[in-house]
Amino acid sequence: MSVRRRGGTPHPLAQRKQQEVCNRVYLSTIGWSKRAVGTDGADRRRLTTISANVFALGAVSLVTDISAEMVTAVLPLYLVLGLQLGPMAYGVVDGTYTGATALLRIVGGYVADRTRSRKAVAGMGYALSAVAKLGLLAAGRSVAAIGLVIAVDRTGKGLRTAPRDALITLSTPPDTLGRAFGVHRAMDSLGAFLGPLVALAVLAAAGQSFDAVFVTSFCIAVLGVVLLVLFVRDRRDVKPAAATVSPRDAVSLLRDAPVRRLVLAACLLGLATVGDGFVYLLLQRREELNAGWFPLLAVGTNLGYLLLAAPIGTLADRVGRLRVMLGGYTSLVAVYLLLFGPLGGWPLIVLTLGLYGIFYAATDGVLMALAGPLLPERLRTTGIAIIQTGQALAYLVSSVLFGMAWQAWGPVTATRAAAGGVVVAITATAVLLARPAIAATKEVSS
């Protein structure tokens, strides 16, 4: 029974207690716990467990990455050693793999926000990438056909990435986004870790037949689409958007200074990043590794990513996401310098792949966690897509430029120049993002 003042108005103490009870019931229904912090009574909410939707999306990414990495792990070796592509030609193909269809990320993000059907758009992307695996069977040894199939596969990735990441942000309270993305990326990297091993097993069982790898990859990709359809839930806005999302709304995101600075920083960091295939080819040539060991280099990187993604994501929530992300790019500088440093043998391989895993664990999901709180919910997918598109286009330019530098100056000079480029990008990013609106996103409450 509540204590009432004269006139029927509840006593303030009773009102407060009733409100606290209501809050606890509400928070328990959405999986949050609430605790008081400090003497001023301020509340800090934290997610007791990661959302089931995040785990479902992680399972889809795990299965899909097994499929994708089966192909990715053997593709550089096939193109460079099998088809005898030069560094510049390989740079074009490698850039195409990530950047050529980057603009479709914006299309996918915009359509997902306009229709508020993020799951459907992501599903189209996953399905398109699955079908592309069969296209590799028909491509044969034609570099042009392989490039076309890769473009189709990346079209699928371009469509699905932003809606998927937006679903993660909409399924997670802001102050635990780093942890949520860390768990998702850990599951994703588990698939990337298993993919090359599955490819090696298929090659061994099928007499070194690449066609068998492509067919198996297709079947696994289809399983990923099925998991998405059955277990991932679309996250609708709590309140319907006041008006339909228009292209003008999407462009207006870039008028917001924090978002604009984050997009520019993502482009600079993408421009300074060399493709994985280049790193593994340089390591394989430096140590004169047998071609059969080549796919295992990606396994080493993904093992580090797998083990560190969730802990580093949690660390980013605590100490600051910008700080952790810049630390990850510092690890990338060390990777580039180690490729032609004094260290050699297995210590070089283990240290290089370990640092490469740290780089991915500290940058991939952390960048999206950094972006999430800065973007309005109704344009969340579009904003993420703009950031990813800028970085992917920069990566396309980076791959071509590095291939040209390798061919013109040699791998040693090209790699050291890349290390210098990362240092410049880190410095510029620290200046661009060292603002309260961005740097203080380690503990954002909704």
CATH class: Mainly Alpha
The main β sheet shows up as: 2 strands, antiparallel
Count up the helices: 18
Strand fraction equals under 5%
Number of domains: 1
Give the overall form.
Answer: globular
CATH superfamily: MFS general substrate transporter like domains
Query: What spatial order of strands do you see in the largest sheet?
Result: 1-2
CATH third-tier fold name: Growth Hormone, Chain: A
Question: How large is the radius of gyration?
Answer: 23 Å
Distance between the termini: 32 Å
Helix content: over 70%
Membrane topology: Multi-pass membrane protein
Transmembrane segments: 54-81, 189-206, 212-232, 262-283, 289-310, 322-340, 346-371, 392-409, 415-434
InterPro entries: MFS (IPR011701), MFS_dom (IPR020846), MFS_trans_sf (IPR036259)
Pfam family, one: MFS_1
Brief digest:
This protein is 75% helix and 3% strand.
Secondary structure layout:
Elements: H1 12-29, E1 32-37, E2 42-47, H2 52-72, H3 75-82, H4 87-99, H5 103-115, H6 118-139, H7 143-170, H8 177-205, H9 210-231, H10 247-252, H11 257-271, H12 276-287, H13 294-319, H14 321-338, H15 345-371, H16 380-409, H17 411-433, H18 436-439
Antiparallel strand pairs: 1-2
Helix pairs in contact: 2-8, 2-9, 4-7, 4-16, 5-6, 5-7, 5-16, 6-7, 6-9, 7-16, 8-13, 8-15, 11-16, 11-17, 13-14, 13-15, 14-15, 14-17, 16-17
Q: What can you see in these coordinates?
A:
There is one protein chain. It is built from 18 helices and two strands. It has 446 residues and is mainly alpha-helical. The chain has a single domain, classed as MFS general substrate transporter like domains (Growth Hormone, Chain: A, Up-down Bundle), CATH 1.20.1250.20. The chain has a two-stranded antiparallel ribbon with strand order 1-2. α5 (103-115) runs parallel beside α7 (143-170), α7 packs antiparallel against α16 (380-409) and α16 runs antiparallel to α17 (411-433). The protein is globular.
